[in-house]
Amino acid sequence: MMIMAGGIDLITIFIGLETMAVSFYILAGFIKPSQRSNEAAVKYFLLGAFSLGILLYGMSLMYGLSGTTNLRVMAPLFTGQERDPRLVLAVILVVAGVGFKIAAVPFHMWAPDVYEGAPTPITAFLSVGSKAASFAMLLRIFLEGLPAMRDDWRLLFASLAIVTMTVGNVAAVTQTNLKRMLAYSSVAHAGYVLIGVVAAASTVPDVRARGITATLIYLLIYSFMQLGAFAVIVLLRRKDVVGDELKDFSGLHVRHPFAAFAMLLFMLSLGGIPPTAGFMGKFWLFGAAIEAGYVWLAVAGVLNSAISLYYYIRVVVFMYLKKETIGSEPKTSGPLALALGVAVVATIALGIYPRQLFEIAEASASTIGAAVVAAAIR
């Protein structure tokens, strides 16, 4: 994943992506006796291999048209040229390949089944690690390699953002399985992050930096929220069944008050309620979109956040207002309690005092922004 995020060469990026993908295929089917785990691994492998083929075809077109695999060398070669249909096709293919990795609509169909069937700790890592690394790869390829095509891919990502947010949130409303609900929630959050990517495509340096910063901040905040929510599910899990369904959370505040409070916090943060970290993340994302001139995209994000509150609050209702259906108290291991505690502290701290995080993300954004400027003036 680090190779994907830091690579500036298409070959390096693809090797990093393939290495990550193979690792996740194996991890998804880690529990051999489990039919659900095996099914998740097979689905993930087949669809993942297909998407990698599409992505590789798009990258090969980029190489064929430029004669290089280095993104920073490639960018000025495409600048000032007439619109080439082959390059447009390359953009579409790369978007489709990356769209699978970030679970953007309509490339998201694998996510609910794989998230539900894979072991819960693996699902947590997959929903965060793969998504964050894939978005970093997306920023590298499009901002550093294809700035000349920004008008095409910016509109494409804006359309994907709206569709992804809406489909993810609407589908999550009907779910009763927590892992499937969080899978569709993850799809919706991919749409939110795409708003930051659209803002990062601005030709104004300050606005571009704000878009990159907002994207990086939200990815980190999302990681804490998502990992924390899955940690609570792991806490409740018994014999590969109990802990996944909404009814398993009934009366959780009686059996495990801290777990109930933690899940309450994560649900509110995922929904973007202040003063949690999720609110600050969406505030920066939507603010960057407005600065970039995409007010309608920010409005769509706010409306989708309102829709998401329904299924997030429903989890809270089960925990605090429903009678408990499981008598045994969840047993918390030391490492799990530590992970849950870190996620809780981070979700609160980054919502109340986010300045330090903003400065770190701003420094990272300036590095990418400088590379974009350098590529444009070569």
Q: Could you characterize what this model shows?
A:
- The chain is mainly alpha-helical.
- It has one domain.
- It has helices spanning 2-6, 10-28, 35-66, 71-78, 85-102, 110-117, 120-145, 150-173, 178-200, 205-236, 252-255, 257-271, 277-291, 295-321, 334-352, 355-377.
- The model is unreliable at 373-378 (pLDDT under 50).
Biggest sheet character: none
Alpha-carbon Rg, integer:
21 Å
What coarse outline follows from CA principal-axis ratios?
globular
Average of pLDDT: 84
Structural class: mainly alpha
Write the layout of secondary structure elements.
Layout: H1 2-6, H2 10-28, H3 35-66, H4 71-78, H5 85-102, H6 110-117, H7 120-145, H8 150-173, H9 178-200, H10 205-236, H11 252-255, H12 257-271, H13 277-291, H14 295-321, H15 334-352, H16 355-377
Helix pairs in contact: 2-3, 2-7, 3-5, 3-6, 4-7, 4-16, 5-7, 5-8, 6-7, 6-9, 7-9, 7-10, 7-16, 8-9, 8-14, 9-10, 9-13, 9-14, 10-12, 10-13, 10-15, 10-16, 12-14, 12-15, 13-14, 13-15
Structure in a nutshell:
The chain has one domain. Helix content is about 80%, strand content about 0%.
Which key features would you list for this structure?
0% strand, 378 residues, disordered C terminus, 79% helix, 16 helices, single chain, mainly alpha
